[in-house]
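#struct-queue
[09:14] JT: dropping the first one here, sequence first, then the structure tokens:
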Amino acid sequence: MWLSFLLLLFSASLFTQKTVWKLGVNGLGVNWGTISSHPLPPSVVVNLLQANKISKVKLFDADSNVVGALAGTGIEVMVAIPNEMLEMISSSMDAANNWVHDNVTHHTFTGGVNIRYVAVGNEPFLRSYNGTFNNVTLPALLNIQKALSIANLTGQVKATVPLNADVLSNGNSTLPSGGIFRPDIHTLMLKLASFLHKNGAPFSVNIYPFLSLQQNVNFPEDFAFFEGTQHALIDGPRTYTNVFDASYDMLVTALEGIGYPNMPIIVGEVGWPTDGDMNANLDNARRFNQELVNHALSGKGTPLRPGKPIELYLFGLIDEDKKSIAPGNFERHWGIYSYDGRGKYALDLSGKGRSNFNLPKAEGVSYLPLRWCVLNPSGDMSKLAENVGYACTSADCTALTYGGSCNSIGGDGNASYAFNNYYQLNNQNKDACYFDGLGMVTTEDPSIGSCKFPVQLVPSYFDSAATTYFTHLSITITMGFATATLSFVFQF
């Protein structure tokens, strides 16, 4: 009965001779997102990856600062083309060639960056996009493949399209064996699968068991994790004890149905958030991610692909306080690390089952002074709601929401938390703690229990509050809470 909710869980050559291609090296990958007000410097993050012996990293763009920092590490890298660039690349071979030259070839010299994949778009066939990218995704993919061929990179770098689960449908069945592709994009999926097969590239999809609990109060908790023996799902000769395997095999069934039973699969995103929802907390995140790591590295595979390795990328590495919260307040809290590179909970990424194994912390992190902005009890309280709302318009207040780690600290605590996050966002500028006389600066840590009041990092050259991000073909400028994306063909 639980497969009726599976579609909530995934977020999910004409030009070269086909080559034999295997998925990447054994080990886990992580998603490294940078939508943060004060991101850690790329060099610090790369050292953190190496300290954790992480062998693969998936990016959401191709920022030259980030990609360049991975040079010489041997870490396998997936760079990405944002959806906003698909139309340009689909209609211009020059744009595709320039993008590959500047963002792939530029980094793949001897001793450079080990780029293995180019992600063309991100979940472009989402039903909510109303077909916006349906007609440009495959042409963009073809042009990128041509550009990789021209650059003699097709034996090293594969192009794929990360997809969300709403490309799938379970038809009239509630079992993994009933998985099919969505009828309105069935032809697109046939063409995509044919392309991937012809070029030896993997099918990439995102799986999110967290959404099972978040969107359905009746979903059995043990089945969302890896302990579903009390709510096992029987599908013919196969038994499923967790929704991850059931979701994965639903995709396997859909691929079998269109003639590609052995297509390699990458789980591009999977994880569990730690805040912003009643099911998002440190205990659940540790529980899920540890069980996931152990399962993926055990070599057991899934019921439809027993004994075959599961290649996956944990989502994500570090919290991102400027991400959109349209999907939910938990969106800013997927990291296994907090904003400053401190592990949130014990997690053994080796899969060896070591209990209470603490993640190594980032080195070389610089903080602003130990100062916080809190509510001034002598202020005019008639203006409190207005000022808290103002602070939360740009600062991250998601921990204050129902189920959040700071939801129970009271009204004054809520105001102090909002004021401090705004103050830290603005690098402790004294004017950022005014709030019509309601704010005051203190050197006494106002944290309450599990509700931590942060002290922000010293801004770096990579700070999104003051720095232009670019992938040579697009520029994203972030100032405060306003973001604009411009797409052009640039030569640098």
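[09:21] JT: and here's the second one, same format:
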Amino acid sequence: MTESYDIAIVGGGPAGCSAGVFCSRAGLDTVVVTNDRSTLRKSAFVENYLGFPLGIEPRALLELVETHAREAGCSLVDGTVKSAETDGNGIVLHLGERSILAERILAASWSDSTYLNELGVRTETESSGSVSVVQTDERGETNVDDVYAAGRLTDTHHQAIVNAGDGARVALEIIEELDTEFYNDWIALEGYYESYDREVPVGVKEIDHDERRNRIERATDFMSSFFETDRSE
């Protein structure tokens, strides 16, 4: 069975899910392939992820980033990429009995990256050790057309919040390449741009005060319910 997407992101950690949120919200049909082997799982507790002043348990953080990706419209697929190839329609990722065809891929998993060798992606030894990392240009694209990489896999510092930012950065590079008029993923109050005699830019959505209150209430209820659930071992 082969499924088709605009972009396939390999890696369900902070870098991959962050990229997925931006790609999906920009209208790209997005799949995130995850094998539940994020480096974040090696951490006992996370105390430097902005927004959690007292810290957060790593599994809870991973659950939140995956939920965010789903809410943004991403499809999440459990599995490991066994092999990859290009054909006339794009790049095919083989996950055993399941295959994914995508116009572009974004590699964001250090533990699931051997398939990149089959695509001819160039690597180098990381600056602070002996592990191979993927070489990219300033936009996050590798030496292979339509193959991008982000996060720890590219020698980005392995702090989770840094990886999340790098995933978002590369996603925005892809989005802006596909739509040069894309301005920002931004929610503004209805009439904001009209007050400046401007059209609403591409990527921006305006909402009224009632919808703003509804979104605040839904977000508050979700987070309250999430943290009321006992996730201790």
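[09:30] RK: nice, looked through the second one.
[09:31] RK: The chain has a mean pLDDT of 94.
[09:31] JT: good to know. Residues 183-228 form one domain.
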